[in-house]
Specification:
GO molecular function, one term: sucrose-phosphate phosphatase activity
Pathway: Glycan biosynthesis; sucrose biosynthesis; sucrose from D-fructose 6-phosphate and UDP-alpha-D-glucose: step 2/2
CATH superfamily of the largest domain: HAD superfamily/HAD-like
Keywords: Hydrolase, Magnesium
Protein name: Sucrose-phosphatase
CATH topology of the largest domain: Rossmann fold
Subunit structure: Homodimer.
Amino acid sequence: MTGTEEAVIGLNWGLNIMDRLNSSPRLMLVSDLDHTMVDHHDPENSSLFRFNALWEAHYRQDSLLVFSTGRSPTLYKQLRKEKPMITPDIAIMSVGTEITYGKSMVPDDGWVQFLNYKWDKNIVIEETSKFPELKHQAETEQRPHKVSFYVQKDKAQSVTQALSKVLEGRGLDVKIIYSGGIDLDVLPKGAGKGQALAYLLKKFETEGKPPLNTLACGDSGNDAELFSIPGVYGVMVSNAQEELLQWHSQNAKDNPKILHASERCASGIIQAIGHFKLGPNLSPRDVSDIGREGSSPGLEIVNTGLLLEKWRRAEIENTELFIAGLKATVLPSGVCIHPSGADYSLEEYINMFRKVYGDQQGKQFRTWVDDVLATQLGSDAWLMKFRKWELCGEERKGCYVTSILSKKDSDWFTLVHLHQTWMEHSGQDEWFL
């Protein structure tokens, strides 16, 4: 048995993501973050909100979301505070040198052991210090299996070639990746976004649950490896950098499984899902008339949140018909526990909506839900658990939500129970809905 096979079979899953799936993931979506999933030129995060709604409504229950980023855990967590991102099932960080699972970011110990082969960070630091062209990145970006620098574009190729020979002469097996026109990372030979993805796919195969389809999404040179994994679909977003486009023209221009999208960032990802026919690609945010008939529990949760957002932004008409329509979808005797701890009947809770109509009109107010998971309690009832967020400008509030939905003798879901609890550091807002 090879070292790789031992690592795969003897892995500590940590938080076993696959336990919640009854069968192979319908789709595993693996996306870079900066300028791919996250558009830093879009202050309203419109494409990210579109993707969030699509994923939580149609994919969260039976698919896997993987973020693959060059960022260290420190900068990854910082980005999550700055942008309205949903929680991935798996995070690949530090250019494929770290793999973690779930919200708690449980590390994959088997991957760490695999990367230790012919790697010595101290030797890398010693030899790179002899290259004045290399400028150290921040200390947070120096990781156990990654040493990172800035280097001018015109010096990158010569430095990479010379450094590779020196480190090979010291007995190391390394990989040097240049991306973004300035970033240079020295990694173990077995590291990288592509190798981390291949490792995960092997791991799922060992578990007997290989993804039915995998879509890799990127914009820069360090994403090229993702598109090289056999059988994987790939999308280069429309704003992809020259280095990735050049790689594509030299290595994969005739590959029908790789798309150069016509849309930016997360919108390009949504476009690719439709192009390759991997599943639904109409985001609930793109539906002008939000319907509820025949929807899934996840779509019901997403659509309800969007309705309340539109109500507070005064994007739907303020009528008693709207309030009556909401009341028709709740159990009159049902109980709502507000994050403040106050108890209301569900009808009382809906009556409160009158007071907040249009209170966010003209503001950058958005809501989204995260990690929407449904547990079927019976043939017609579901326990829903998720996180709900409100964002107005830079102010963010969130709560944990547990609810029970029922669907008896109707195509409509009925809300039976709603329990909300403030997240730590969230403001105490009477009108958090």
